[in-house]
């Protein structure tokens, strides 16, 4: 085991024992790994170490080849010849991925109890656990793969469930993986509750419980930023949410002016993927990151739909929003807001055919009640009317049409939403609320609507 100075400051004896358990085995034990097979030997998380992977050529030592991305912060490490890790920023040496990950994560989140190193440390962009799996396939092909990494799922959840690799210029502006809302919500009526009735977090409480929004004034706060949203953003977002009976998600691009404290939302970026489809999520989000960068925009928020329910955040949405807010903090913990928007297209409690669109933010719970839920608050927004429908928006609409063309949960636009209004009438009426000043848009949208009709 390494010296105490190599371990996280302030670690308890129990935590140090756990970290030592994950450090290097002796050379004889490593040799036994190759001769053993199946579940009956040394096949545990600590059985395969960085030194094993180095000896067998699956990884190579190098400067800056290891990285941790956690809650919007990045840490870089060198992989040494003996399998230890040197943190570039301080030169500290760590004996295992878990020891380094725990130390770095505690700097961001002091309440973090473990680092889940193999799932959170990346070697040249790939999680170390993938190299562990490769080793097992090669040397213990009969091994039970379920024993490879017992903490992967927990780690993905802890890190905001993101597979996005943002450009270095925007490394603090990384979207979070949109499967934060993997669970399909039911169509049954959900009655929103008031925040004051929630109390302390309760694992038995339904995470889909809807919560009424509070006003900043009701919690003795002022809204800490101003928001302006382009009408084209609303149009594209509303269009996306109307296409399917399942929840959708997308990101918001724009600019944050620290001098005027103004957040300007200029573009919507729909995610053309299923919420639970982890394989395609990474590629979709990488494309969105590139689009943001090419347009000189930053990630400033996200949106999702409640197809048939009220446009109010659930407990799960509240936690997701808080995670996004933490990740979008600027460098040196500078403040940058992250706007959440919920769109409810087919809720029969809406006024008329227009979707309900709800911008919201989450205020952390009081310091004396750290185990409470965050407080969802309504955000006052200025909507800026665009003069015309841009080609970018039209292109995104047509890509969405193509994506959902054969989807089993595609909305049947010939059916009736209410006795005298078809689904097609519904979407047309809602989008007209965000219509550009230039009336030529109507002919363009008619082309889009004709494509929707042909999808039935």
Question: Could you characterize the architecture of this molecule?
Answer:
- Pfam families: JAB, RAMA.
- Residues 1-19 have a biased composition (Basic and acidic residues).
- The chain is an alpha+beta fold and 456 residues long.
- The protein folds into two domains: 50-139; 203-454, Cytidine Deaminase, domain 2 (3-Layer(aba) Sandwich), CATH 3.40.140.
- Helix content is 30%, strand content 18%.
- The protein has helices at residues 13-21, 27-35, 50-55, 97-108, 117-120, 128-139, 152-158, 231-242, 278-294, 315-327, 391-404, 423-431, 441-454; strands at 62-70, 73-79, 85-87, 93-94, 121-123, 126-127, 226-230, 249-257, 262-270, 298-305, 339-344, 356-363, 375-378, 382-384, 416-418, 421-422.
- Helix 11 (391-404) runs parallel beside helix 13.
- The chain is globular, with a radius of gyration of 25 Å.
